[in-house]
Amino acid sequence: MAKATKTNKTGASKLHSTKNPISENIRGSMVELLQTHLATSIDITYQTKQAHWNVKGMNFIAVHELFDDLHEVVEDYVDKIAERLTALGGQAHGTVQASAGNTILEPYPLDLVKSEDHLRRLADSYSAWSKAAQEGIEEASEAGDALTEDLLTEVARGLDKSIYFLESHFQS
């Protein structure tokens, strides 16, 4: 049976014991990397829902449904990131409170209404996470963790598609 994680003085969690062949040092750094992406994925999930619930305008239904579709896509990333993190022996910090303290995203404005404002703001958030995911791909590659690299590549590919869907509404 795996040992429970314990938190050290800095708040970082020790790893659960596992037969995963990656060294404990690399697993620890990948868990830290993935905690940031887990927090960011949870944050962007609810930024997208915030837009979905509050969007108004002439193209309401199309944008409302787009935001719901994007929400489902990023919600899938939440699960995949958390499962990879725990497979490496980490303890997923997946609460809203934990995510708020570890996301890379700027807070989402709560007063947005116009569809174009939501589209632009979400494009900024998706772009910021895409940049971080691409940096994470490089970090995982340098660490020799091909599976985390592959996961973040999948995430980055999906984020780029989402950015395209968002930006297409205001590009000409």
Automatic annotation (TrEMBL):
Entry's InterPro entries?
DPS_DNA-bd (IPR002177), DPS_DNA-bd_CS (IPR023188), Ferritin-like (IPR012347), Ferritin-like_SF (IPR009078), Ferritin_DPS_dom (IPR008331)
Using the UniProt annotation, give all residue ranges assigned to the region (Disordered).
Answer: 1-20
- The residue range of the signal peptide is none
State the superkingdom.
Bacteria
Under the heading Pfam families, the entry gives: Ferritin
| Composition skew (Polar residues), residue ranges | 1-11
Q: Tell me which residues make up the Ferritin/DPS domain.
A: 32-171
Q: Which family does it belong to?
A: Belongs to the Dps family.
Which NCBIfam families does the record match to this protein?
Answer: PRK09448.1 (NF006975)
State the name under which the record lists this protein: DNA starvation/stationary phase protection protein Dps
Provenance organism: Jiella sonneratiae
